Amino acid sequence: MKILTLTEESKTDILENLLKRSPNSYGKFESQVAEIIENVRAKKDAALFDYTRRFDGADISADTILVTDAEIKEAYENVDAKLLEVIKKALVNIRTYHEKQRQYSWFDSEENGILLGQKVTPLQRVGVYVPGGKAVYPSSVLMNVMPAKVAGVDEIIMTTPPGKDGKICASTLVAAKEAGVDRIYKVGGAQAIAALAFGTESIPKVDKIVGPGNIYVALAKKAVFGHVSIDSIAGPSEILVLADETANPRFVAADLLSQAEHDEMASAILVTTSKTLAEEVSKEIDAFVKQLSRKEIIQKSLDQYGYILVAKDDAEAIQTANEIASEHLEIVMKNPYEVMTKIRNAGAIFLGEYSSEPLGDYFAGPNHVLPTNGTAKFFSPLSVDDFIKKSSIISYSKEALEPVYKDIVQFAECEQLTAHANSIKVRFED
Amino acid sequence: MKILTLTEESKTDILENLLKRSPNSYGKFESQVAEIIENVRAKKDAALFDYTRRFDGADISADTILVTDAEIKEAYENVDAKLLEVIKKALVNIRTYHEKQRQYSWFDSEENGILLGQKVTPLQRVGVYVPGGKAVYPSSVLMNVMPAKVAGVDEIIMTTPPGKDGKICASTLVAAKEAGVDRIYKVGGAQAIAALAFGTESIPKVDKIVGPGNIYVALAKKAVFGHVSIDSIAGPSEILVLADETANPRFVAADLLSQAEHDEMASAILVTTSKTLAEEVSKEIDAFVKQLSRKEIIQKSLDQYGYILVAKDDAEAIQTANEIASEHLEIVMKNPYEVMTKIRNAGAIFLGEYSSEPLGDYFAGPNHVLPTNGTAKFFSPLSVDDFIKKSSIISYSKEALEPVYKDIVQFAECEQLTAHANSIKVRFED
Question: Which of A134, A229, A393, B11 has the fewest CB atoms lying closer than 10 Å?
Answer without folding.
Answer: A134
